[in-house]
Amino acid sequence: MTASPIVGRLAAGAIVVGIAACSPAGPLPTADAVTWTATLPGDPRTLDDLLAIARAAHQPVWIELTAAWCAACRIVDQGAYRDPDVVRAARRFLTIRIDTTAGDPLTTALATRLAATGLPTLMFVGADGTPLADRRVVGTIAAPELVATLAEVR
Q: pLDDT tens for residues 85-144?
């Protein structure tokens, strides 16, 4: 009994996939994503420490408040934060992610201090240390809009 042409093509495809997965080059690369300089809680430095480091280096700061249970946060993580233009633009920032999932006293105090009204909240501090309230983003954001916002932060 001979295999049908469809079974033959599926088998050939499986062999090609198997060869590609075992190739010396390794698995296919995954998309880059925004890299966070620090995640609070978890980093030994405080928010004030990180802001002082950025100010001394004349580097702008990107702060994000997020939570594991936040659906909008996952949309941004899987969308805009993986866009190559966003990843490139983010490299000039000191990036701080504040994970509010646990609702512990530290993250609650930081969310209050930063006047976060929803998640995700993205806020920016200029290289001179000035908070840029007019650049705040609450909720989802598309990659082109985020690239434009990052370009405006100096």
A: 999 999 999 999 999 999 999 999 999 999 999 999 999 999 999 999 999 999 999 999
Alpha-carbon distance of 41 to 99, in angstroms, equals 7
Residue 139, SS3?
coil
Q: Is 85 left (phi over 0), alpha (psi -120 to 50) or beta?
A: alpha
127's tokens:
């290289």
Whether the bond between 131 and the residue before it is cis, its omega within 30 degrees of 0, is no
- Token output for 65: 């408040």
Q: What is the pTM of this model?
A: 0.79
d(CA 21, CA 130): 49
Those residues with Cβ within 8 angstroms of residue 15's Cβ, 6 or more apart along the chain or in another chain: none
pLDDT tops 90 at residue 65: yes
Q: Which of 72, 65, 77, 140 is nearest to 103 (CA)?
A: 65
